[in-house]
Design a protein that fits this description.
alpha+beta
Length: 59
């Protein structure tokens, strides 16, 4: 069974680096406290690492 990451947006995207806002969009996160489930792969890990100060991740 494939591992998944549960990603929650905990801080607002406004007033942040524009590239980080686009990364959140690519992850599918728009609203605070929104949760998405993504596959645990290097691409997803890289996106999460870039915006780690805005999200909470549970494996």
């Amino acid at each position: 069974m494939e591992k998944k990451l549960k990603i929650t947006l905990v801080k607002s995207r406004f007033g942040r680096v524009p590239k980080h806002g686009r990364t959140l969009s690519a992850l599918g996160l728009r609203k605070i406290n929104q949760v998405v489930v993504k596959p645990d792969n290097p691409q997803t890990r890289g996106m999460v690492k870039q915006v780690d100060y805005l999200v909470k991740v549970v494996e």
